[in-house]
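Why does residue order matter? Because the sequence determines the fold. Keep that principle in mind as you read this record.
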Amino acid sequence: MLYYILRPIATLAYKIFYRKIHLIGVEKLPKDRPLLVACNHPNGFTEPCVLSCIFPISLNFMTRGDLFKNPIMRIFLRSTHQIPIFRFRDGFEAMRSNEKSIEEANKALLDNKAIIMFVEGSTQNTRKLRKFQKGLSRMTRDFELAYPDANLGILPVTINFSDPNNTGSSVTVSVYDVVEPKDFNFKENTSNAPLTQLTKQLHETMKEGVFHFENTENQDVFNSIIAKMPHKEFPSFLPKLISSDELLKRGKHLIQALEESDTYQKDFEEIANSKSAFLGQVNYSMFEKFMYFLLSPFALLGYLLNFIPLKSAFSFTKSKVKKPIFFTSVLIAINVAAYFLFVLTLIVFSLVFHFPIYITLAIFAIFSFIYVYFSYLKSKKQAAEDFHSMGDRLKSAYLKTQKIMENGIA
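Structure:
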C-alpha cells in the first residue's frame, strides 16, 4: 500500500532532481509474465527509486538483509515491496532466513510480478560494470526446475548517471531483450556450467549499456566532462522522460577516446579543469532575459519560503550520510518529508489565524514555482555567459570534445 502512495510523490521528486531521464527500450518490457530484472548498482538507493518511478509495472526488490534489523526500517522496507536477502557476512543464522525470502520471491514470481536483483552484489560509484554474483542465476535455475511452466524471463537493465548527486543532471536507463532461462537447459545439465553461461551472457549484454572503463585511471576526467557536457544543448526547464540514447552514446564515445588515444588528453583536461557547470549551446532568449529580471524579487520571496524545508533537509542529510552513493536518495526522501511537515505547518497556521487554507497553499506553490524557474534561468544565464566568454584554448578543446562525443573517434 505504501509503495503506491509514495510512487507518484517520488516520481515528481526524482523528475525535478534529474531534469532529463532517458528511457531506452521500454517497449521490450513484458507486462504479463514473471520477471527477474538484472540491474547494475552504481549509486545506492537511487537506482531502485528511479526504476520504480519510470517503469510502467510494479516492482519488487531483493534487498540486503541487514537493513531489516531496525524495526522501523523493516516496516518501511516491507511496505515498499522489498524482500530481505542475507549474505555470508551477515552470519549463518541470518542466512537461514533466506529460505523464507526465496519462498516469498517465488510466490511473487508466480503472481507474474517483477523482482529486481542488483547483480554486482553491492553498490559502488565507479564507471565500470563489476563482476556479477551468481545469485540471480541460481534463483533462475531453482525457479525453472520447480516451476517449469511459469514462463520466467530475465530482463537485463542498465542505469547511468551524468552526475548522480547534482540537481538538474541526467539519467539513462536501458532495457534489453528478455533472456529466456529455457535456453540454458538447467534440467538436462545439472553442473554449474549453465549458471556461468547465464551470468556471462548477462554481463556481456549489460556492458554495452554502461559507462565502462577497463582502466579506471581516467575516471575523474570523464566524470567532470560528462557532468559538464551531457548534452549538446542546455536542457529545457520542464523535466523530460524521453526515448533517446544521446547521453549513453556521448559517454561511450568519450570513454573510447580516453582509453584508445592520447591525442586529446590535453583537450579533455582543459574541459575537466574549467569552472563552467555546463558547456554547450545555450539559447538564452530575450524572453528569458526579461523573465530573469522581472522575477528576481519574487524569487527571493520564494527562496525565503523554501529556506526552512530545503536547508533542514540538506543539513540533516549532510550530517547523517557519510557515503556519497547514498546522499541523493536520502536527500530526496528527507526533502519530501520536510515539505510534508512544512505544508502541514502552513495549514495549521491558516487554521489558527482563520486564513483560507487554499490561498495559503496557492501562495506557497506559486512562489515556489517562481523560485525553481528563476534558479533554472540563473543557471542557464551563467551557462550562456560561460559559452560566449570561452578563451581560444578552451573553445578549441570544447569543439574537439563535442565532435568526439557526438561521432566518436575515427
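The CA atoms of residues 144 and 182 lie 8 Å apart.
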